[in-house]
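Internal tracking record. Fields below are filled automatically when a chain is submitted to the structure queue. Please do not edit lines marked as system-generated. If the sequence contains nonstandard residues, flag them in the REMARKS field before resubmitting.
Queue: standard
Priority: normal
Entity type: single polypeptide chain
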Amino acid sequence: MRYKIYTNTEKAWDAMLESIASAKTSIFLEMYIFLDNTSDSHNFVEVLSQKALSGVSVKVIIDSWGSNALSSIAIKKLKNAGVELLFFSRLFRYTHRKVLVIDERVAFIGGINIGKFFRKWHDLQIRLEGKVVKHIIRSFARTYKKCGGKDSFVLKYDKQRLIQKGRVW
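SYSTEM-GENERATED OUTPUT FOLLOWS
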């Protein structure tokens, strides 16, 4: 397993955007707080939209409470570009995960949200490569299913393998 640790928001955002820009097939993003007010330096909405327009499968899950200040303009831009944008909305439940998976090979997990308020925060984000990424995708797939996602490509990761069931029995 290869990894790299980021200790502040801006460095993590730089690495995340660099990975998003290099995506060839898929981008899975799950965020508690995802806002479009960082466009002056880190324009996630634009980069995700461009990747979707280029044919990359982009799935974004954001918490309806934590990301309630995301502008309707950004929502329309993402959806019009072909991004599958889902909102996690459960009574008194939130998704506090901060997950980004690129091409099923690279994952980012940690405490970094996307919003101007968090720009100068010292927080941790880790970039991972290796077998652990499949487990992170499985976590994303479970939330994707709960939010009403229908893409079989993502949902296949929600299925438990028989050998895993055998270990539990």
